[in-house]
DNA sequence: TAAATAAGATACAAAATGCACCTTATGAGC
DNA sequence: GCTCATAAGGTGCATTTTGTATCTTATTTA
């Protein structure tokens, strides 16, 4: 009989758990069910995680890692205007949310907050923070080079484009329209940044 | 032997559960433990909720109700300037977060998203949304009466002050300083609204 | 090819679940 | 006051889940 090992096994454990969560709210997950769904024995699970909560932490950091390590921001082109660049940025970032699902992102924040010393993913988180900061810095640099006036803002405020998308996806569940993205740029981002 | 009934009982069930959650991540809560902590029998719990998840939904909507039905916005005075009004608004709203805890708010959003048809608290949610909209409308009306110029913005954008506070509390766990609140007003809200 | 490693199976006591059924305190009605 | 309906609290039981220990076996690596 074939045996899955290492990452291959890990991924199918994650997949099975994820599959189960679509049916049951994950507060009620059991190792028994997961083992069954993943066609393995509980032993394999207990060896890795003391509780289902720990498993979930790993699932979401895994999903988040795949997300954060993506080259999404590398696709960003110079559209010729700050406005165009912002629209492109929001569109790409919203695309990430559409792809991975708002609930995963939501869960990531949730799990993060539950973890007293969110020890396991600080490195990941700071790395992703840096990527986000760089994306903004790049856009603003281009704008300045073009001669567009850019305000000096505090570091936290620079994250506003991402915060807007996040909030929109967390608080309001309706699909985010292109129109809304453009409104974010025209009503919020441009007045704030330029 | 004395028996707690109705709301009194309900509240002490909530309290006991809440107490337990400080020790255990709530993914691992059991009815057994809760019943023990609340000094009652499991029967009482099963009569009310099929799973711990359902209990949690009720807890957070209860907590949220106490929050949303509060008269926080009624305290808002006319400070004489839009800037002052915004600072006051953010301070009051941040105070709410400090009081009730960012994790409760986080959980509220979380539970809300898990619930496919968040059926139980839609009324509550729209009521609170209205309160928020009114608070903003009031501030803007005063500003206009004073002769300050106010931009015409889409309905969703009007929620920006609250979105900022929410995001700040969800994504970044450090305590929000007065300085940061003022920066939000000067760097974001004033450029957007006026 | 042998040894090390990790997956998977089995067993078992303890805890938790989900019900059914029973007892009893308490508030509402007369 | 007294009675009765209601809801709280208790008990018992079959089933599921947990946590752990122990053993077998597939697969990697040296």
UniProtKB/TrEMBL annotation, chains A, B:
Keyword Transcription regulation included in the entry's annotation: yes
Example of a GO MF term: DNA binding
Pfam families tied to this protein: TetR_C_11 (PF16859), TetR_N (PF00440)
Domain HTH tetR-type per the UniProt entry, residue ranges: 7-67
DNA-binding segment(s): 30-49
Family matches, as PROSITE patterns: HTH_TETR_2
Protein name, UniProt field: TetR/AcrR family transcriptional regulator
Organism of origin: Chitinophaga silvisoli
